[in-house]
Amino acid sequence: MNQLSQDEKYMQRCLQLAQLAEGNTYPNPMVGSVIVHDGKIIGEGYHRKAGEPHAEVNAVRSVRNKELLQKSILYVNLEPCAHYGKTPPCSKLIIDYEIPNVVIGCIDSFSEVAGQGVVMMEREGVLVKTGVLEEESLELNRRFFTFHNKQRPYVILKWAETGDGFIDIERKEENYGQPTWITNEWARRAVHKQRTTEQAILVGTQTALKDNPSLTVRDWNGHQPLRCVIDRQLRLNRDYNLLDNSRETIIYNAIKASGKENVKYIRLNSKDDVTHQILADLHQRNIQSVIVEGGRSTLQRFIDTNLWDEAHQYIGDVIFNNGISAPKLNGRIINRESFGSSKLYVYRNI
Fold first, then answer.
1. Separation of alpha carbons 60 and 76, rounded Å
2. Which one is catalytic: 44, 56, 293, 310?
3. Is 56 a catalytic residue?
């Protein structure tokens, strides 16, 4: 294993700091910053929430002796901004404090930044180094970059399947109302934790009818995602949890467009592919990530149109022998986790 260079060690710390705010910075990226003087960290910070100070600001504020900044190196995993938004540009902050050296993980491809921060700093004599742990920096903010570069949310497919490859039994209407549990409580807790880090969650009509899900975070603390359901013919009524008005919910359908309280109806063009239309609508709403939780036809539709980025396959030790088959995809396994009798395989679209 290659030993990390000094720059890489400090950049790794930036990434660790940035990760602390996962799920809380939307629509902004996750950013951490470290300030080093004479081989010692004298300040660090991260962006905690949209509208609050950026990572570089918090790092500078944490430095007790500001005079040391003129002989320091500032590390940050994403290019400092150069535009005025809810906060002033971080590139100008670096220039104003006369920080002579800046090391950056990756360039920000967001159109309002896109290299302008580097240009602003270099124009004022700041020595800028880029591309340190670049892959890791891009990976951390993959949702942000997908949203801006592909003009759609980052799509995560998720399902649970039995040891013999089924996601559900063949159920009749008298068996509707509750999900058929496949994984254990520890895996289900992991699912709820993941919901807190994503902005939206989507299911199809059959899942909504059969399972009557709430699509809320209950087994973890954190952000509640926007609830979305595909219900073309408006088969759901007020008896279903998704229409209880407790959370903001979008019903994608082919009949009406209206909004009342927390439930909004978005009419889709039945002649066009619904996946593209849904992702376009979510993009317009500034939603950077969405979990697609089923059912099989909805998951397979995203797979067949190649509109997915990650897939989370939970496998339990239950055996059904027959039922609804799990979706099929081609992807590269990037991670494996064990939750006792339940396993998680994470795939990346190749």
1. 12
2. 56
3. yes
